[in-house]
Amino acid sequence: MRAELITVGTELLTGQIVNTNAQYLAEKMAEIGVDVYFQTAVGDNRDRLLSVLELAKDRSQLVILCGGLGPTEDDLTKQTLAEFLGRDLIADPDAMAKLDHFFASRPTYHRTPNNDRQAELVAGSRPLPNRTGLAVGGLVEQGGVTYVVLPGPPSELKPMVQEQLLPFLSDGQRLYSRVLRFIGIGESQLVTVLADLIANQTDPTIAPYAKTGEVTLRLSTKSSRQELADAAFDQLEATILAHEGLADCLYGYGEDNSLAAVVVNLLKERQLTLTAAESLTGGLLQATLTEQAGSSAIFKGGFVTYSLEQKAQMLGISPELLRQHGTVSAVAAEAMAEQSRRLTGSDLGVALTGVAGPVELEGQSVGTVYLGLATEHGVISHKLTIGDRGRQHIRQIAVLHALNLVRQAICSDKTMV
Amino acid sequence: MRAELITVGTELLTGQIVNTNAQYLAEKMAEIGVDVYFQTAVGDNRDRLLSVLELAKDRSQLVILCGGLGPTEDDLTKQTLAEFLGRDLIADPDAMAKLDHFFASRPTYHRTPNNDRQAELVAGSRPLPNRTGLAVGGLVEQGGVTYVVLPGPPSELKPMVQEQLLPFLSDGQRLYSRVLRFIGIGESQLVTVLADLIANQTDPTIAPYAKTGEVTLRLSTKSSRQELADAAFDQLEATILAHEGLADCLYGYGEDNSLAAVVVNLLKERQLTLTAAESLTGGLLQATLTEQAGSSAIFKGGFVTYSLEQKAQMLGISPELLRQHGTVSAVAAEAMAEQSRRLTGSDLGVALTGVAGPVELEGQSVGTVYLGLATEHGVISHKLTIGDRGRQHIRQIAVLHALNLVRQAICSDKTMV
Q1: Is there a contact between A19 and B23 if contact means CB atoms under 8 Å apart?
Q2: E strands of B44-153, at which residues?
Q3: Chain-chain contact of A187 with B73 (C-beta, under 8 angstroms)
Q4: Can you give the pLDDT at residue A417?
Q5: N or C terminus of chain B: which is more exposed, having fewer CB within 10 Å?
Q6: Percent of chain A beyond pLDDT 90?
Q7: Nearest chain A Cα to B343, which residue?
Q8: Does B300 contact A309 at a Cβ distance shorter than 8 Å?
Q9: What pLDDT score does A294 carry?
Q10: Pairing state of beta strands B274-278 and B348-354?
Q11: Nearest CA in chain B to A16
């Protein structure tokens, strides 16, 4: 089914609010296999809403309008849809009874004629009752197009969609997804490696998406059962991971997952503890780790050593060594990792030192980062050349690479099992 | 000027991401007095993008396209606009030089033909250089309509809009804004205090907006000159701050400002250094401080002391004291602040200990936080009851309150001048 969303509200056009309803509705439609081809935001304006409806009726079979059902003067979605369809607005008896009850139980509230509009529907609509508010929603068909009217407040929209609209619209088939999460490979490189597969994709489909420092692939298929979808995903995933180098870059699955969550869980599983000594990231790695609930099982504490003096003093590293090799060096990263591990008695110590910018440091360019990792087997270091991509980006990417170094060490080291 | 936004990306239509770019662009256009009448989200699809451009050219004078400038197969915004306008795509020499430099300095990255697309522009465009990324933006006029092409990643979009697009578009009358930033007062409380002023607002207008832990008031007025706008803002601001308690809560001005930036600048001005010992926030305060460029002038290093043992060992606090009073206590917060200050030789030491959740700790409920602050005059503590508002919220709010404690101490203490 070809669908489109029309979100109504001047506050969207002035940027006062973010259009989270469009995202929510789009996600829900995808879940039941309805393809949304257009989303339009339009102000509380009769003429412009009419022009959008005129377009929509020719290009979509399902038109979902959201917002503008309230009791104020500028709420005109239902009136405009009624005019567009050449129908009347009529009161829904259940919604009107709810309105009566609302005002009867609140004697201090003033009921205005505008309030009654909330209980009205385009004639011929199937009502969508509003469990958490007063504005009734509706669904009406004309000329082969289904028009749906929904309230704007998310607290009213979501229950109505979940409890009324989705069960009505879905019939057996729904969309399943599997999200593969990669680190250590750029989006363009991943897409080049998988070019043939992506060019010839049919079912499941493959959609790459880049976030800061990582890339995800979303596999999607329509199916009647989870098991059938999973079988299709398993097969496609195996084909993807057969490409050289990709299996090592796959760190996890799922929309709400993160590298930090994966690392914390790996450490928990193996009953290992991690500490850190951070310079350019200033505590960001430790803050990212401790975002995860239950991280106290794997993290006891660590160091933010920003200046040369504090690297020396807090970690017990010779200041001469740091001056000789520079604080932005493999030697510094290795010493920081090893000393943080030793001082806190942790199983692993990770260190980050580098140049977050905006200016270069010790003759090293912005975006140069050294990672150190100390384990019971010894200490290694790794140089990153992130480039001048802005202070925050550099720090975030450095943290992801450091977490990935920890992940790889745990996964590759059989003695850590 | 009648404008519309076209945001391009299938991930918008499937609800994978929220369209924050539409909100950002709408807000920026409102600021310079450009009226946005339509926002359309469309997938990475040539035919549908062409259909939206066809509509746009007849109803808008300014058409801003955002997204789809990347190096992958499905990025086709520039190609489609070129086709729509009957123009070629040509390489922008500066953008190509930047691309060359990027790959030359990263020998391990594979350059693919797709990458070159990022440096291309619709023929006849005025280039909009991308300071924080590789995809060049552009601005081209045809048939009385100005078409603007912008990158999708917010980290690239925002600098390009702020530094390139807005100065080009604004001329003569424009909308001026002053943003007042408050901490320590909720949005509903601020709105209640200012109810009369907000109800009777004319020019400048007043728009309150709540973010995590803080509230802003945006004053806006249209004017031909900055000086005229400033005079109006000065008068309204004085009226606002005459309300009891508000002057103490005002911590700064401006859209891109933050409490961390204000605190770092105050410390720099007074030539003071700050350290921290963090428990529940796990390094988030120090990461927030070091987000600010040049923070090394005021921050040498600090501690993340998550477990009781590391609070004792890293900070040299008696474990018996911590066990007796609890690690979530005023005593612990004060000892952590004082010891971090002493061990690093900093002027101020701030400490955070508390319960981020999801479960209670030492019989203290989720959202209970103790802040400690040590200065040359001694040490104080402050208890926060944030409530169970989710782990991340609690940590962020705790950091803001800790920074505000530092701000108030510096501002109130004449000896720190």
Answers
A1: yes
A2: 62-66, 89-91, 120-122, 126-128, 137-142, 145-150
A3: no
A4: 42
A5: C
A6: 74
A7: A314
A8: yes
A9: 94
A10: parallel
A11: B27
Closest in A192, A290, A310 to B110, CB measured: A192
Burial class (CB within 10 angstroms; exposed 0-12, middle 13-18, buried 19+) of A270:
middle
Q: Check residue A227 and give its pLDDT.
A: 93
Q: Closest partner residue to B283 among A52, A290, A387, by Cβ?
A: A290
**DSSP 8-state symbol, B161:** I
Assign B187 a pLDDT band (cuts: 50, 70, 90). Answer: confident
Q: What are the Cα distances from residue B79, in Å, to A360, B44, B69, B149, B187?
A: 38, 11, 9, 11, 45
**Nearest beta carbon to residue A307 from set B19, B48, B296:** B296
Distance CA A75, CA A312 (A): 65
Does the beta-carbon distance from B72 to A37 stay under 8 Å?
Answer: no
- Among chain B residues, CA nearest to A26: B15
Put simply, whether the predicted model's pTM sits higher than 0.90 gets the answer no
Contacts for B151 with CB less than 8 Å, ≥ 6 apart = B66, B67, B69, B70, B130, B133, B135, B137, B157, B160
**B257, B324, B325: which is closest to B291 by C-alpha?**
B257
The packing angle between helices A77-85 and A46-59, to 10°, is 50
Quick one: which of B322, B302, B325 has its CA closest to B406?
Answer: B302
Above 70 in pLDDT, residue A172? Answer: no
Residue A22: is its pLDDT beyond 90?
A: yes
Q: Which residue has the higher pLDDT, B106 or B329?
A: B329
Question: What is the rounded CA–CA span in Å between residue B216 and residue B255?
Answer: 9
Contact B102 A387 (CB under 8 A): yes
What is the structure's pLDDT at B417? 43
**CA distance to partner chain B, nearest, from residue A306 (Å):** 5
Residue A125 is given by DSSP the state P
H or E, element range at B224: none
> From residue A11, how far is each of A72, B20, B38, B292 by CA, in Å?
14, 14, 12, 32
Please give the pLDDT value at position A393: 93
In a mutagenesis test of the A interface, which of B23, B103, B403 is the best target, namely the one with the most A β-carbons within 10 Å? B23
Interface residue of A4, A10, A13, A216 to substitute, partner B, most B CBs within 10 Å: A13
Model confidence at B415: pLDDT above 70: no
**The pLDDT of residue B73:** 78
Lowest mean pLDDT among A131-135, A200-204, B96-100, B347-351: A200-204
Phi and psi at residue A365, to the nearest 5°: -80, 160
Is the Cβ–Cβ distance between A185 and A245 less than 8 Å? yes
Q: Do A26 and B39 touch (CB under 8 A)?
A: no
Question: Which residues in chain B have their CB less than 8 angstroms from residue A276's CB?
Answer: 304
Smallest CA–CA separation between B36 and chain A, in Å? 6
